[in-house]
């Protein structure tokens, strides 16, 4: 057996980036096929939590139409009734994140 000293790293928990509570009206879909209204309630550069009137399935890919930003590809990481957690295919830019959380 051996012993080693270590210093824990500062982390954001399991998160890769800061989260911000928001209340943004958005849509699920792309182009003229925006199929469902939703509300973004929590946002980070890498993902979002949404409330929707349509049930989503974990593992599915969707387009999320965000105000001021446009369509963002996202994977549904978890879904529970009419709420879901999304991971964006490409992280939001600092400018896009700041404009949505301002």
Automatic annotation (TrEMBL):
It holds the Pfam family PilZ. GO terms for molecular function: cyclic-di-GMP binding. Residues 14-100 form the PilZ domain. It comes from the Bacteria. This is Pilus assembly protein PilZ.
């Amino acid at each position: 057996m051996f012993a080693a000293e270590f210093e824990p790293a500062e982390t954001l928990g399991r998160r890769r980036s800061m989260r911000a509570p928001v209340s943004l009206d958005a849509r699920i879909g792309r182009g003229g096929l925006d199929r469902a209204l939703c509300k973004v309630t929590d946002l980070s550069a890498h993902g979002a939590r949404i409330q929707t009137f349509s049930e989503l399935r974990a593992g599915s890919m969707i387009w999320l139409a965000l105000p001021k930003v446009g369509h963002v590809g996202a994977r549904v990481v978890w879904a529970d009734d009419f709420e879901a957690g999304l991971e964006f295919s490409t992280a939001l830019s600092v400018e896009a994140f700041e404009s949505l959380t301002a």
